[in-house]
Write a structure and sequence with these properties.
Layout (H helix, E strand, L loop, with lengths): L6 E4 L2 E4 L17 H11 L1 H31 L3 H4 L6 H10 L6 H13 L13 H36 L4 H15 L2 H15 L15 H27 L2 H8 L4 H12 L1 H26 L5 H10 L3 H29 L7
Helix pairs in contact: 2-5, 2-14, 6-7, 6-9, 6-12, 6-14, 7-9, 8-9, 8-12, 9-12, 12-13, 12-14, 13-14
């Protein structure tokens, strides 16, 4: 190979910076200058950089969640009142505080609490008489199963319906699906869950009313989540599709003989991918922010939401703390996965 050696291989192509005569040999040309090597390494380390940045931000967020929970339960409230009788005197409350170390300085208690969390010690549940984290981890798989099926159904109906409606705006299909999606957004999710129970479980007897017994017991709670969250996904996907269908490249593609199906699958879906991933990811995070927890309680689904509500009724702060921290950690991990999905859909996102 003649000329200068300042060459970089980018995705199988040879790029020349100062060379006058370049002959492309068989196989890739290796980067030989420090700048070229740094460019090649940057392309390989983008995903690792995203993971490291999101892990750093997630760790900071989780620490803030832990601080807020500790302040709310130890400064705003008094955990000793949970163990004290209703008519307990000040002396009895003081003895309980001394027994549990609640009379120690705030920073000392927070240090022990923070260190215990990283050891997996969230305290013992006064309701279930076992480690609080064990109760939360026992309920976690049920919530994961429900949220995944719920977002899968919401994404399917929202994306398919939104693309079909957006491809033919103001058509009969568009008007009907738009009306149904607005209705899904307007009703409270717990009311919709009760309505589905009344129709499909009580009147028709097709499905169980509650619990997690057979495979069909998840259909109604997952359908409730899918309908409510699918309505919002539908609205945004439809708007993005309508916008893309009005752009010049669609007219050019049609003038070249592409059918509407080819235009949708080859161009429109690709360009609306980030919007679709954003709203679907946001809806999944909203489920973990409380939407799925309310549905769990309506259907007596033994997940984290039902556990938290029952723990609140019994004033079990240890289970509440553990559940909130685990749910927060799961939201952080979900956001990381969503960011990696962005990178897979559009590699330019990693450079931002």
């Amino acid at each position: 190979m003649g000329g200068s050696s300042d060459l970089v291989t980018v995705r199988g192509r040879v790029t020349r910076s100062d060379a006058d005569d370049v002959t492309e040999e068989d196989g890739p040309v290796q980067a030989s200058t420090p700048i070229a090597r740094r460019m090649a390494w940057a392309g390989r380390s983008t995903v690792a950089g995203i993971v490291l940045r999101r892990a750093r931000d997630g760790a900071i967020t989780l620490v803030l969640v832990i601080v807020v929970i500790f302040v709310l339960t130890n400064v705003v409230g008094n955990p000793a009142l949970v163990y004290a009788p209703v008519d307990a005197s000040d002396a009895e409350i003081a003895r309980i505080e001394a027994a549990f170390g609640l009379d120690r300085p705030f920073l000392e208690r927070f240090g022990d609490y923070f260190a215990g969390i990283f050891r997996g010690d969230f305290g013992n549940s006064n309701w279930q008489q076992r480690p609080a984290i064990d109760a939360v981890l026992e309920a976690l798989p049920a919530t994961i199963q429900l949220s995944i099926l719920g977002i899968a159904g919401a994404a399917f109906f929202g994306i398919v319906g939104g693309v079909l409606a957006g491809a033919r705006p103001n058509s009969r299909l568009d008007r009907v699906t738009n009306f149904l999606s607005i209705g899904a957004l307007s009703v409270p999710n717990f009311w919709l869950g009760l309505l589905l129970i009344f129709v499909f479980a009580v009147r028709l007897g097709w499905l169980p009313t509650s619990g997690r017994i057979g495979w069909n017991s998840i259909i109604l709670p997952a359908a409730t989540l899918a309908i409510v969250h699918g309505g919002r996904i539908f609205q945004l996907v439809r708007s993005a599709t309508v916008e893309e269908m009005s752009k010049p490249y669609v007219r050019v593609a049609r003038s070249k003989g592409f059918s509407d199906r080819q235009v949708l699958t080859r161009h429109v879906l690709r360009n609306t991918g980030l919007t679709t991933a954003t709203i679907a990811g946001w809806e999944y995070v909203r489920m973990w922010g409380g939407a799925a927890f309310a549905i769990e309680f309506v259907f007596a689904w033994p997940g984290i939401g039902t556990l938290m509500i029952n723990a609140a009724h019994r004033q079990d702060f240890f289970i509440l703390q553990a559940a909130v921290i685990v749910a927060g950690a799961f939201v952080i991990v979900s956001n990381l996965i969503i960011d990696l999905m962005y990178r897979a859909i559009d590699r330019r996102v990693g450079a931002a």
